Amino acid sequence: MKSLFLFDMTFWLYLAALVLYIGYLFARRPTMALAPAGHLPENFDERDGVWATQLGQVATLVTIFGWMLNTGALFTRAFERMEHSGTFAPWSNQFEAMAYVSWAIILGYVLLEMRYKIKAIGAFVVGIGFIAMGAASLLPYRYQTAEPLVPALNSYWIYIHVSVTLTSYAAFATAGGLGVMYLFKERAERLGKTTGFYAAFPDLETIDELGYKAITVGFPMLAFGIILGAMWANYAWGGYWSWDPKETWSLIVWLIYGAYIHARMTRGWEGHKAAIYAVFGFLMVIFCFWGVNFLLSGLHAYA
Amino acid sequence: MNSQPDALPKEPSIRPSTPGLGWEEFSRELVEFFASVKLAIFLFLFIAITATIGTVIQQGERAEVYVQEYGENAYRWFLRLGFTDVYHTWWFTSLLGLLCVNSLTCFYKRFPSVWRSMKQDKVGVTMAFIKNMKQQAEIPLDNTKEAVAQQMVHHFVTKGYRVLAKNEPGEVTVYATKGVMGRVGAHMAHLSATVIIFGGLLGTYYGFQEFGVCLEGQTYHIPRGNFDLKIDKFWIDYHENGSVKSYNSTLTVVDGGQSVVTKTISVNDPLVYKGIWFYQSSYGDAWDQVEVARVNIKDKETDKVLKTVDLEWQKEQSLPDLNVKLSITDFVADFAFNSTEKKVYSKTIEHANPAVKLVITERDSVQATPWIFQQFPDLFNIKESKYQFELVGYKPRKFTGLQIAKNPGINIVWTGCTMIVVGITLSSFIFHRRLWAKIVPGQTGVTVHLGGTTHKSQIDFQKEFRKLTEKIQTFKA
Asked: Chain A neighbours among B 278-317 (CB < 8 Å)?
């Protein structure tokens, strides 16, 4: 299958991008981050800045190129599916779903970088995108091929229900990555490390706020995804809610983030707590996405 | 999602200091408790935690299954706590009810102020109020207060703000606001919980879900809808690799003796008639009918197979060379005999011990109707017959499994779902912003005191605020 080759290439490009982003963090002179605008710090070396900037640019380019390949792979898979299984949706099994999630994570990251111009986040968020792609490629081969769909899945609902839900997972993954980043930065600050790697990170408040934003994107999306699933279930199974493990877990994840969003209102749930919570929430998403399929039985056990 | 007062400097509130615990005080406390975000967070997490139970422990299984897996003691506890059907226990339902109470009380308590801020706004504020805000700036300008105010109002309006201004002799106060829909959205989401749960209850009490096993060619009465359903046809489509692509049934609704609707349903494509939905849910091998059965006829003496015949269901077939007429009149997939009623029936729907009832007419004299078993070929012996009959195979008739459901609450549930999606989308992407500016004339020109507040998206607002400040600096006479 041609798409498998493209997925493989995407994996390597994401790895390269991740390495470049980490390189960027190291290359960036710590003083640069701390210097107020327009004031050159002492012992400033012009070349360091240039070198870091170039590295950052290459990282972004590689990421974008990897994302384009990912897009290409998904399209190729869609055509392969059309030949064999009567659906276009390139997210019809666990492998494809993972590849789609990493596509969405990287797209989200690129948009984030374009808007906020903070490259340091790449080391974490592109990292998660890469891990998602890597985990997909670790699946046994029989999970990676475009097998025909079982009758229950063979419906136009798969286009929208699955993609919306997976996109919300991607948003939560981004929030999880930002949470980890926050904790790293916080620890560095506590230990008084203002030099090196950590100095290139944006300030804590920004990381916190971006993480929150990612969750506010994921939260309504997951709600929409669950509801689309309910509509589909009503069409296919004759009941919109049957407390099937996957359904229940997606509701659990939604409730967990619902608690977060409410907690955030009452202050005090910013920063440290919020970061830990975002990581915890992401772990729950992983369980909902992977754990349920492999550990629990139910209607969604198609993988 | 809640509309907590966002970082506004608190103004002293007047509370009546009645001693003791009067009803007023009590009901206020009660509303306070039920509307609290704390309760909401507790409920969200508690429901999340308890909901995991039903995903780990199999729901609605037979007692033996639990005893085998968890032991008798654990099973007793399961029953006491309702763990075998968690989602329908009184305590889980109460949690959902409490969530409704929580969100409704929150709406009751907080929505009026959101409504008021949509209708009327507080323009007049003190200078201290502005200076206390998270985002605030002081901009000296060489201009008159009226000119600055005019440009400011114009700029805010082009930025999509709703602007109110108050011109007083000493100063001009400008108030601008945007995105109150974000808060309305949050409350819409709050109401949706109750709407969804109400729709769900309606479905539970006034709806039904049944499973019907139907055979091709048969007509079934649907008592709940008082009409008949005829199964015209059932078939399975396959992919090239042999896996099942879809299964389909052609159904005809017969209402009042007349065919009303005919539709081919398949998985994901149900038939709806009079609010009753017919879903293609499953299929399987019938346990009381076969299409065709293969029978070996052996000579008793030589134990040699003389002939193998395929007998069609309930059709007599004559074999002139053996002078035998055969027909199959009955079939059971899992043979069992009810000795009190003297009846043969199928114990389960599994094809565990298949048997057919053979009607034999031999040389016009011998008549026999033995049950012959696939697994026990020697069980029955017809004394007068020269032959031994053996069931060697059969092709069962397929049944179509139909899910029959009616849910009068479904549209209410969808309404609630729309509300929750629209509501949380609004509240996630639109944030309520408020700006106040006081333009105070000084000795040379004026000083603009600008302050702003939002309840979320602080960085975006910070950016926006900086841009506004920069813009104001360019206001020329």
From this structure: 279, 281
pLDDT at A291: 84
Contact flag B421-A227 (C-beta cutoff 8 Å):
yes
- The residue segments making up the domain with residue A166 are 2-39+46-295
- Mean pLDDT of all residues in chain B? 86
Token pair 């309702």 is at which residue? B82
Per cent of chain B over pLDDT 70 is: 95
Where do we find the tokens 């114990």? B347
Q: Which residues in chain B are contacts of A258 at CB distance < 8 A?
A: 1, 44
Of B44, B269, B424, the CB nearest to A220: B424
For residue A147, give the DSSP letter: P
Q: Which residues of B touch A80 (CB under 8 A)?
A: none
Classify residue B201: in a domain, yes or no: no
**Residue B307, pLDDT score:** 84
The per-residue pLDDT for range A59-94, each reduced to its tens digit, is 999 999 999 999 999 999 998 888 876 678 888 888
**What is the model's pLDDT at position B11?**
47
Q: What stretches in chain A show pLDDT beneath 70?
A: 29-49, 85-86, 193-196, 266-268, 297-303
Q: Assess A82–B contact: CB distance below 8 Å, yes or no.
A: no
| Positions in chain B whose pLDDT score sits under 50 | 1-13
Q: Which residue in the set B266, B410, B425 is minimally distant from A234, CB to CB? A: B410
Contact B281 A212 (CB under 8 A): no
* List of residues 6+ apart from B109 with CB closer than 8 A: B31, B32, B35
Interface of B with A in 386-405 (CB under 8 A): 403-405
Q: Does residue B11 lie within any of the structural domains? A: no
Q: How far is A286 from A276, CA to CA, in rounded Å?
A: 15
pLDDT tens, residue by residue, B153-164: 999 999 889 898
Instruction: Give Cβ neighbours of residue A36 (< 8 Å, ≥ 6 apart).
Output: none
Assess whether B295 and B387 both reside in one domain.
Answer: yes
Q: Is residue A300 part of a domain?
A: no
In this structure, the answer to whether residues B318 and B393 fall within a common structural domain is yes
Structure-token pair, residue B62: 């037979």
**Which pair of tokens denotes residue A190?**
């506590």
Task: Give how far A202 is from chain B: nearest CA, Å.
Answer: 12
For position A109, what pLDDT does the model report?
95
Structure-token pair, residue B194 = 């109750």
Q: Say what the pLDDT of residue B12 is.
A: 47
In this prediction the ipTM stands at 0.87
Domain hosting B89: range is 23-101
Q: Is residue A301, in this structure, part of any structural domain at all?
A: no
Closest to B287 in 3D by CA, of B370, B345, B327, B248? B345
B415 shares its domain with B457? no
Pairwise CB contact (< 8 Å): B1 & A154: no
Report pLDDT for B253.
93
Interface test with chain A among B55, B61, B195, by most A beta carbons within 10 Å: B55
My answer on whether B320 and B338 are in the same domain is yes
- The answer to whether A219 contacts B428, with C-beta atoms less than 8 Å apart, is yes
Provide the domain count of chain A. Answer: 1
Contact B281 A240 (CB under 8 A): no
Size of interface A-B (CB pairs under 8 A): 136
Give residue A36's pLDDT: 46
Residue-wise pLDDT tens digits, A7-21:
999 999 999 999 999
Quick check: B390 and B295 in contact, CB under 8 A?
yes
